[in-house]
């Protein structure tokens, strides 16, 4: 049981840190993608295409085993770090599209009003448009978060001891095959907790309506 | 001295020429009403002056400084971003659909630009916002979000928000046409007060009462062109342009 709890910590830590990083990177990618400057929009589009168009599993392998072969200096010794990098980069591509849609759903009049008051494009985005888009981002980001929570089980392939990996190890001993039950329960409890957190966030961001 | 001067400006979209060779100057302290049928280019004209559209031909001067110039077949003369922003602050715009920032209270809506553009101190901006809200008759709505305000109240906050940047001219694009009839009066009263206080105003409106009472000149637009310009008394009693006569008739018959 203590081993399971420790592994749950790894799963949660990986999910939360990579989603948080991905939100930051995703906002940046979304802004680059809707920019009129092709030097920003083209690379962003390519990035999103690459990470959404290829399996996360291979991306993970690549970060852990492939990168050190090409750039020996980048030898990522920590499994957690490798998983964190691969997940953040991958999730950012998905979130970028969600964030872009949320930003573009804000009425054009908001940007026009901001510009007519003398605010720059960047100020209009950061002070007027993006804050209004948070509320619209939260449901899809929550969805993405819950998928990631379960997708983190992929890290067992680089032998990072997350909840799924630990469960399998314990279960390989026939006597404790019932470990699947607490393990499932832990996933469900995590899902429930984070659903509540996201619902709260959504309420908080719609207070003004 | 003219605050706004346009010289033969044109604006074409892919399929329509929305504004054709419009030359108009608005002097300091003058109130000019722009009227005309739907699609005649009134909004587009205002949006060009306010930098929301890029003209395709002509010149725009704000405060006798060149703001934008374009001659067909020649490179587009536009100021640097910084210069453009400096000149643009001299014009304040009020939109038909208010466009208040829904995530900010009435006071915060007004404070946003003074703090972030003019780098005013928060306290100073707050005091100014309160003063402006009192002036537009919303002394009890400082901390209300736009969703909790009526259309007429929202539009008055929007007027206060534009005034907070201390513009030299206020542009209004049909400020009362999205409002329920009983709310129109409150907004018009604020606008008339503003006109009486000496503010320079260019107002696109369907409110003939306002044009008669507050305007120094009426500009009639049709098909992207200025059809007639004159003092309201003269224009309303005896329009000369046939399109204007027709337009006045259609309004009287409503
Ligand atoms: N962004 C745009 N793209 C293409 N055409 C446009 C655009 N904006 C305006 N137009 C066209 O330009 C013409 C003038 O439109 P504008 O909105 O300036 O008229 P208006 O006089 O303000 O009309 P209304 O009284 O209905 O507000 C119309 O034919 C309109 O369809
Ligand atoms: Mg219009």
Give a brief outline of the structure.
The complex is a heterodimer of chains A (209) and B (254). By secondary structure, chain A is mainly α.
Model description:
The complex is a heterodimer of chains A (209) and B (254). Chain A is an all-alpha fold. Helix content of chain A is 79%, strand content 0%. In chain A, α1 (2-34) packs antiparallel against α2 and α1 packs across α4 (79-104). Chain B has 254 residues and is an alpha/beta fold. Chain B is 37% helix and 26% strand. In chain B, the strands form two sheets. Chain B has a six-stranded mixed beta sheet, sandwiched between helices. A five-stranded antiparallel beta sheet of chain B has the order 2-1-4-5-6, covered by helices on one side. In chain B, β4 (57-62) and β5 (65-70) form a beta hairpin. Chain B is globular and about 50 Å long. The chains are: A mainly alpha (209), B alpha/beta (254).
What is the share of helical residues of chain B?
25-40%
Listed once per kind, the bound small molecules are: adenosine-5'-triphosphate, magnesium ion
Report the biggest beta sheet of chain A as strand number plus sense, adding barrel if it closes. none
Mean pLDDT of chain B: 94
Order of helices and strands of chain A: HHHHHHHH
Structural class of chain B: alpha/beta
The poorly predicted ranges of chain A are: none
Structural class of chain A: mainly alpha
Q: What fraction of residues of chain B sit in β-strands? A: 25-35%
Spatial order of the strands in the main sheet of chain B?
A: 7-8-9-3-10-11
Q: Report the total helices of chain A.
A: 8
Biggest interface: chains and residue counts?
A: A-B, 19 and 29 residues
Low-confidence stretches of chain B: none
Which key terms come to mind for this protein?
heterodimer, A: 209 residues, mainly alpha, 0% strand, flat, B: 254 residues, alpha/beta, five-stranded antiparallel sheet, 9 helices, binds magnesium ion
């Amino acid at each position: 049981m203590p081993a399971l709890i420790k592994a749950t910590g790894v799963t949660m830590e990986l999910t939360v840190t990579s989603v948080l990083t991905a939100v930051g990177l995703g906002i940046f990618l979304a802004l680059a993608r809707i920019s009129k400057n092709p030097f920003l929009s083209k690379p962003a589009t390519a990035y999103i295409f690459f990470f959404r168009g290829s399996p996360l599993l291979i991306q993970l392998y690549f970060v852990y085993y492939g990168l050190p072969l090409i750039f020996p200096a980048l030898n990522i010794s920590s499994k957690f770090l490798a998983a964190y990098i691969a997940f953040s980069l991958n999730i950012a591509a998905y979130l970028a599209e969600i964030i872009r849609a949320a930003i573009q759903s804000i009425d054009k009049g908001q940007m026009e009003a901001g510009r007519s008051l003398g605010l720059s494009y960047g100020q209009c985005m950061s002070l007027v448009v993006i804050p209004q888009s948070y509320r619209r981002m939260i449901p899809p980001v929550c969805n993405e978060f819950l998928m990631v929570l379960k997708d983190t089980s992929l890290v067992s392939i680089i032998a990072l001891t997350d909840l799924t990996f630990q469960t399998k190890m314990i279960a390989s001993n026939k006597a404790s095959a019932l470990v699947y039950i607490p393990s499932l329960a832990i996933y469900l409890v995590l899902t429930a907790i984070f659903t509540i957190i996201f619902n709260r966030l959504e309420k908080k961001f719609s207070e003004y309506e | 001295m003219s605050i706004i001067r346009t010289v033969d400006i044109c604006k074409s979209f892919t399929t329509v020429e929305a504004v054709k060779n419009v030359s108009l100057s608005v002097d300091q302290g003058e109130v000019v009403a722009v009227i005309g049928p739907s699609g005649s280019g009134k909004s587009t004209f205002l949006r060009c002056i306010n930098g929301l559209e890029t003209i395709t031909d002509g010149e725009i001067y704000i405060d006798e400084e060149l703001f934008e110039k374009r001659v067909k077949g020649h490179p587009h003369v536009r100021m640097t971003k910084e210069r453009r922003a400096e000149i643009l602050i001299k014009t304040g715009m009020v939109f038909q659909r208010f466009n208040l920032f829904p995530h900010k209270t009435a006071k915060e809506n007004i404070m946003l630009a003074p703090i972030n553009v003019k780098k005013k101190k928060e306290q100073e901006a707050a005091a100014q916002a309160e003063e402006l809200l009192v002036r537009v008759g919303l002394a009890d709505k400082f901390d209300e979000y736009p969703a909790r305000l009526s259309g007429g109240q929202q539009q008055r906050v929007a007027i206060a928000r534009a005034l907070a940047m201390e513009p030299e001219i206020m542009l209004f694009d049909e400020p009362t046409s999205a409002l329920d009839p009983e709310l129109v009066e409150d907004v018009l009263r604020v606008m008339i007060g503003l006109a009486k206080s000496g503010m320079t105003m260019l107002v696109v409106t369907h409110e003939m009462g306002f044009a008669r009472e507050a305007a120094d000149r009426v500009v009639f637009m049709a098909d992207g062109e200025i059809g007639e310009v004159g003092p309201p008394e003269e224009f309303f009693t005896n329009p000369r342009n046939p399109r204007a006569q027709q337009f006045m008739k259609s309004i009287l018959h409503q």
